[in-house]
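Report of the visiting student (M.T.), summer placement. My assignment was to run the structure pipeline on a short list of targets and document each run. The first record concerns FAA hydrolase family protein.
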Amino acid sequence: MGHEGFVIERPKAASLPVVGKDERFPVRRIYCVGRNYVAHVEEMGGSADRDPPIFFQKPTDSIVQSGSTIAYATMTKDFHYELELVMALKSGGYNIPEDQALDHVYGYGVGIDMTRRDIQGGGRPWEIAKSFDESCPCGPITPVEKSGHIEKGNIKLTVNGETRQDSDVSLLIWSLPEIISKLSEFYELKAGDIILTGTPHGVGPVKTGDELVGTIDGLEPLTVKIGDPVK
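After the run finished, the structure tokens were exported:
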């Protein structure tokens, strides 16, 4: 009794604020693209060849609102930021043609793919390094009618006011339409999905007390602070 038809309390649905609207954007799934800027691929020891994109997911409840403080993640001593442009979808499907892909985009935002760098790789699944609690800080979604479709623009992250990542969205290896089209070959994309599109070079560690600010031209900034480790 008291759970509206469920045997336990229903989990709270994840959502993001929308610039200029009282209504919020409901988040269905979180998709991420790995190794999608040449300079970042090279700084991680990889080749700049145009290999097929690497896709992975984060749990929907890993969303963190801008202005929040997140705990220093468990099971890591090398907690990293990765600033990314976020696409928010209003529709979807399977096998979406590239020339129709952007028709499915509701808007754009700024996100950070927080990563347990010291346990990433070595043949282990990426989920344990990428898909944990509070691993997906996201700023407000700016509707396309306000931002236009983003093909270029500065993408920058500062830590305590010091610039750590500074690049341009135009340097994506796989473009936004290509990402949507390729991802839809593996999954049926739907309204409410968000896609983190990859990080530029300059990724690095954070410590308790750090303040991260992510900006992308034309979008609302994202601010997040790193708190104490979970006890």
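The helical segments are 38-43, 98-101, 127-130, 144-147, 176-186. The CA atoms of residues 123 and 129 lie 12 Å apart. I thank the supervising group for their guidance throughout the placement.
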